[in-house]
Write a structure and sequence with these properties.
Layout: H1 3-29, H2 44-76, H3 82-104, H4 108-142
Length: 177
């Protein structure tokens, strides 16, 4: 995972969790100023819109990180941060599904069930994400000076049998030939 991917994932997760938390606080814990008000705070619709705009960036970031970080580490079978990472990945899919369904379901009872599930899954994903980071940092501190988690993509060249130096690799032909 490179620096861009890490920052995109962290910032999008932070903004998505913050806007979701603020929206839940406004919707469920605040009292409306007016008894006839449909919303509990004047900024409530704007916070929801910001959450809906930021969440797809988080989905994109998780997709990028899945290809470059999650899948290679699962295939390699490396234990560092494994359970917290699997927990984050396992709860992220249902979080996205409930987030999309909340936007399209109109029946009140299923909508309420989806919304509460989405809120609970959002809390779980955020906690698992932070727990994963803490587990990885703790593992890095224990293994200070250890080699990289993943081996490099290309193995080192084998020594030449006669000279003891690497075998020269053939050059690729030009496209014009």
């Amino acid at each position: 995972m490179n620096r861009f991917q890490r920052r995109l994932l962290w910032w999008s997760t932070l903004l998505t969790a913050a806007t979701g938390g603020v929206y839940a606080w406004m919707k469920h814990l605040m009292e409306p100023v007016d008894e006839w008000a449909v919303i509990n705070h004047p900024l409530q619709p704007w916070v929801l819109k910001l959450h809906i705009l930021v969440a797809p960036v988080m989905v994109f970031a998780v997709g990028m990180v899945t290809v470059t970080h999650v899948w290679p580490l699962l295939k390699a079978g490396l234990p560092r941060g494994r359970w917290t990472g699997i927990g984050t990945a396992a709860t992220f899919g249902p979080l996205v599904l409930t987030g999309y369904l909340v936007q399209v379901v109109t029946w009140p009872r299923p909508l309420a069930i989806l919304a509460w599930n989405h809120l609970g899954l959002g809390i779980l994903v955020t906690a698992a994400f932070l727990g994963h980071r803490a587990a990885v940092v703790r593992g890095l501190r224990r293994r200070k000076g250890a080699l990289s988690v993943l081996p490099s993509a290309a193995p080192p060249p084998a020594p030449h049998p006669a000279r003891g130096s690497p075998v020269p690799r053939p050059r690729a032909r030009a496209a014009a030939e």
